[in-house]
From TrEMBL:
<dbReference type="InterPro" id="IPR050134">
    <property type="entry name" value="NAD-dep_sirtuin_deacylases"/>
</dbReference>
<feature type="binding site">
    <location>
        <position position="151"/>
    </location>
    <ligand>
        <name>Zn(2+)</name>
    </ligand>
</feature>
<dbReference type="InterPro" id="IPR026590">
    <property type="entry name" value="Ssirtuin_cat_dom"/>
</dbReference>
<feature type="active site" description="Proton acceptor">
    <location>
        <position position="121"/>
    </location>
</feature>
<keyword id="KW-0479">Metal-binding</keyword>
<dbReference type="GO" id="GO:0070403">
    <property type="term" value="F:NAD+ binding"/>
</dbReference>
<dbReference type="GO" id="GO:0046872">
    <property type="term" value="F:metal ion binding"/>
</dbReference>
<dbReference type="InterPro" id="IPR003000">
    <property type="entry name" value="Sirtuin"/>
</dbReference>
<keyword id="KW-0520">NAD</keyword>
<dbReference type="GO" id="GO:0017136">
    <property type="term" value="F:histone deacetylase activity, NAD-dependent"/>
</dbReference>
<keyword id="KW-0862">Zinc</keyword>
<feature type="domain" description="Deacetylase sirtuin-type">
    <location>
        <begin position="1"/>
        <end position="249"/>
    </location>
</feature>
<feature type="binding site">
    <location>
        <position position="132"/>
    </location>
    <ligand>
        <name>Zn(2+)</name>
    </ligand>
</feature>
<protein>
    <recommendedName>
        <fullName>protein acetyllysine N-acetyltransferase</fullName>
        <ecNumber>2.3.1.286</ecNumber>
    </recommendedName>
</protein>
<feature type="binding site">
    <location>
        <position position="154"/>
    </location>
    <ligand>
        <name>Zn(2+)</name>
    </ligand>
</feature>
<dbReference type="Pfam" id="PF02146">
    <property type="entry name" value="SIR2"/>
</dbReference>
<feature type="binding site">
    <location>
        <position position="129"/>
    </location>
    <ligand>
        <name>Zn(2+)</name>
    </ligand>
</feature>
Length: 249
């Protein structure tokens, strides 16, 4: 058994003790076909986030923002959960994992089977009218409505219930997330760079409360040298395929 396998085995034993929470970012969904927002091939190289992902722009020019949103929804349509999502769902089903806290809006954790998912940045699964407050479950037809989907009640532009720049995170979700990390025994950090606040505070809060930090990332993050106890420099799907063998072994 090599050193990495020894570490994976240690992590499996830790996880089997329960009290686990997962904290996920865009990196967990890359192998599902959803490009990250940041980085060389990220969405922000094509769409300036301060322009296209800002709430002020949506209010002034929803047609412009919906150009970007259509591309995002096309990625969501084609994406399926990868081994990382599926293993997290299995861990919850086995009673080891209490919840997933995610910065993602792709709904892949729910598709994989996770039931307790705290969505810090909202969800692409529903739309809302900022004028009259009417909510709609997302249907594919909305993407093909030009210049943008409109509220059937008042005719105003519909906005996905995702958090745009310039909007606060959902207070209830943020409160739940901090409560979870304060009491967890182990926090598994997957596919996040640790630079988007206030969500990025969560692993530090877990560490302060005595949790072990397991990190799975293809590159080092803000956490790696400061608070991480176990670092696996790999893509999430590839790592959790191997992890599953040890979990079931």
């Amino acid at each position: 058994m090599n050193r990495k396998e020894e570490l994976v085995k240690e992590v499996v034993e830790l996880i089997k003790q329960g009290g686990i929470v997962a904290f996920t970012g865009a990196g967990i969904s890359v192998e599902s076909g959803i490009p990250p927002f940041r980085g060389a091939k990220g969405l922000w190289t094509k769409y300036n986030p301060e322009e296209y992902a800002y709430i002020g722009t949506f209010l002034r020019n929803p047609e412009k923002v919906w150009m970007m949103l259509r591309e995002i929804y096309q990625c969501f349509k084609e994406a399926t959960p990868n081994p990382a999502h599926l293993v997290l769902a299995d861990l919850e089903n086995k009673g080891y994992l209490e919840a997933v806290i995610t910065q993602n809006i792709d709904n892949l954790h729910q598709k994989a089977g996770n039931k307790k998912v705290i969505e810090l940045h909202g969800t692409g699964e529903s739309l809302t009218c900022l004028d009259c407050g009417k909510r709609y479950k997302f249907f594919e037809e909305f993407v093909n409505m030009f210049p943008y989907p409109k509220c059937e009640k008042c005719g105003k532009a519909l906005k996905p219930e995702i958090v745009f720049f310039g909007e606060p995170l959902p207070e209830e979700a943020l409160t739940q997330a901090f409560e979870l990390v304060k009491r967890c025994k182990v926090l598994i950090v997957i596919g996040t760079s640790g630079v988007v606040y206030p969500a990025a505070y969560l692993p530090y809060e877990a560490k302060r409360s005595g949790a072990k930090i397991i990190e799975v990332n293809p590159e080092e993050s803000a956490y790696t040298e400061s608070i991480t106890d176990y670092f696996f420099k790999e893509r999430a799907g590839k790592f959790f395929e191997e992890f599953k063998r040890f979990l079931e072994g």
